[in-house]
Structure formats: C-alpha cells, structure tokens
Amino acid sequence: MAKILCIDDEPILRLITSDYLGDMGHEVLEASSGAEGLTLFRRYRPDIVLSDLRMPDGDGFLVVTHLAEEAPETPVVIISGTGTLDDAVKTMRLGAWDYLSKPLKDMPLLGQTVERMLNKARERRNASQYLLNLESRVNELEHELQSWSSSHKDTVLRLEAALKTSIGSLNLALREKDPYTAGHNERVARISVDIGIALGLGEQEQEVLMLAGLLHDIGKIGVPESILNKRIALSPDELEEIRSHVTCGYRILCNIPFDGPVAELVLQHHERYDGSGYPKGLAGEGILLEARILAVADVYEALCSDRPYRAGLNPVDAASYVFKNAGTHFCPKCVDAFRQIIF
Ligand SMILES: [Fe+2]
After folding, report:
1. At 5, phi and psi to the nearest 5?
2. Of 90, 153, 220, 280, which is the active-site residue?
3. Is 201 inside a domain boundary?
4. Binning pLDDT at 50, 70 and 90, where does residue 246 land?
5. To pair with 339 at 20 to 30 A between CA atoms, which of 77, 152, 190, 214?
6. Ligand 1 center–CA 10 separation, angstroms
7. Residue 29: what pLDDT?
8. Are residues 100 and 188 in the same domain?
C-alpha cells in the first residue's frame, strides 16, 4: 500500500481518482491546488504525487518544479485535460516522471502508471542505497589500507631498529674478542662509503656498503683468539682458519633481511681482481662492485694499522701499495676512486 497525493481543482475528478486508487488498497490524500498540494506533501511525505496542470493558486508546473528540487526521489505524474504537447514536454523537462491526458476513461491505465512509478522509485532508492553502501565500503577499505600501511610502517621501523641493535651487539662481541678488528671494521666502512660516493653510488647502495664495511670481518668471531693475535707466521691450517672468517660471516648474515647483498659482500671481500683471492677465486666484474670497493678499503686500512706482528705503514706508503696493485689485486676503477678521496 502506498500513500498517494492527488492534486486537482475539480472535486469530482479527485473523488473518482481517490475511489479507484483507494479500492486498490492505497491511502489517498487530496489537495485542490498546487499550493495546498505542496503543503500536504511537506507534512505527509506521500510516495507519489498525481497533479493536474492548470489550477488556480499554484499550477502543475509549480508542483513539479518544487518537488524536483525538494524530493527528486518522489514520482510526480501530471494529469492534464488542457495541456498541449509542449506542456507535456515542459513538465517532463522540469522533472515530472510521466504525463497522462484527461479525461481518464481508462482507469486501469492510471492504476498501472501508479504501480510502474512506485516500482521505478523503489529501484532508484535501491540503486542509491547500493551506491551509498559501495561508497561506504570503499571508505572502509581506504581506512583499512591506511591502518595497514601505518602498522606495516611501524613493523618495518621496529625491524630496522632491531637490526641496528643486532649489528651493534655483533660488533660489541667482536670488540671484546679482538679490539683491533672492531675499530678496523668502522674505519673500512667509512673509507668504502667515500669510494662508493666517488663512484656515484646511490644512497641505498651507500647504506649497504656501510653495513658490509661494519660487518665484513664479523666472521672472525668464529676464529680462535690465539690465531687472530699470533705474533709468528701462521701454519697452513691456521691460515685456513683465518680465511674461514668470510664464510662464517656469510653464514651469520645470510638470513638477515638487509636491503641489499650485505652477506654476499662479506663473502667476497677477499676476492682479488685477477682471480687469486678467496673463497671462490672470482675475478674482474664477477666480483660485486661493492666487494671490490671493500677490498681496497680493507687492505689500505689494514696496512696503516699496527698488528701484533708488525707496525703499521704510514698512509702514503699504504696508498702506494694499493695504487701499484691496481689491475692485479684491486679493481682499477675502484683504485681510481680511492685515489680521489684518500688525500
Ligand atoms: Fe677480512
């Protein structure tokens, strides 16, 4: 059952229409002018409005114009006995949903029109509701996405903080065991980054190089102190033990989710450009660029430092050694960059 507002200045036509639609089970409100019809509409909010066109005190054009603005979801059907085709087109353009001509000899046509308009209004309401639900769901998803991004960011920040703490702990452990090695790692990291900048490496690659520099000798944690600090020549077995620090370092680091090949750089930092290094005997461009950089910084820094079995060289002599071994021990491109930054 629907609530129908019937606006017509002829009481007999209102009576006929009300009787017919009342018999169909609808509730019918009656108004004798456009102005009265708008007042009743605002008070009772009917489901559909049937309006005459020509009436004193507010015609059908007035009704359509106001309702199209105030309640576009409510169907308005114009029923006119005096209107022309132009009037019909005008009312439809103003917002009427349908147009019928008087006299209404075919009352079932009125009944069908009312039902059709009510169905159309229902479909429009459903479509609007669907769009509202869709919009609301999109907003919810956007909100969820923002929350997820924010919590994901927090997770990444926590992981980065945990990683930095772990690296600090590893270096502390190494410093306890071999103070020389820990300081050496920090100096190699700084020189390596300077060489990397001279070679045009980006910020992320510099970060990876810094981490690899700090950690390149971390595998010495697994080498006995008696061998690390031995003052006389090492036996072949002891030499192998020392060399194992690259694979030990790789094993420690290979499962940590760095933003670059830190573990591989640690593994390769004793490879030599001519293929005579270890552990794999890689050569030339087969060695990662950052590992070739580390090799230059590592040897230069080691030569400058005092060791248990020898005094350190002065920086000029240590750099000369690096320059002389470009193309054999060291990558020539990295040595050129080293030359630019070292003095
Ligand atoms: Fe090393």
Report:
1. -105, 120
2. 220
3. yes
4. very high
5. 214
6. 106
7. 96
8. no
Domain of 89, in residue numbers: 3-127
Cβ-based neighbours of 53, under 8 Å, separated by 6 or more: 59, 60, 61, 78, 79, 80, 82, 83, 87, 91
d(CA 67, CA 120) in angstroms, rounded, equals 17
How far is it, in rounded angstroms, from Cα 129 to Cα 150?
A: 31
220 counts as catalytic? yes
- Kindly calculate the radius of gyration of the chain based on its CA atoms and give it in whole angstroms: 44
Give distance in angstroms: CA of 304 to centre of ligand 1: 15
Q: Is residue 146 part of a domain?
A: no
Tokens 């603005």 sit on residue = 69
Q: What is the 3-state secondary structure (H, E, C) of 55-80?
A: CCCCCHHHHHHHHHHHCCCCCEEEEE
Q: For position 29, which CATH number holds?
A: 3.40.50.2300
Say how many domains are in the chain.
2
pLDDT digits (tens, 9 = 90+) for 195-240: 999 999 999 999 999 999 999 998 888 888 788 777 778 888 899 9
Decide: residue 97, CB within 10 A, 0-12 exposed, 13-18 middle, 19+ buried: buried
- For the domain that residue 189 is a member of, what is the CATH number? 1.10.3210.10
The CA distance from 270 to 114, in Å, is 90
- Kindly give the distance from the C-alpha atom of residue 124 to the centroid of ligand 1, in angstroms, as a whole number: 75
Positive or negative, the Cα torsion across 100, 106, 107, 111? negative
Beta bridge partners of residue 310, listed in sequence order:
307
pLDDT tens by residue, 114-164: 999 999 999 888 888 887 887 788 778 878 877 777 777 777 777 778 777
In a domain, 149, yes or no: no
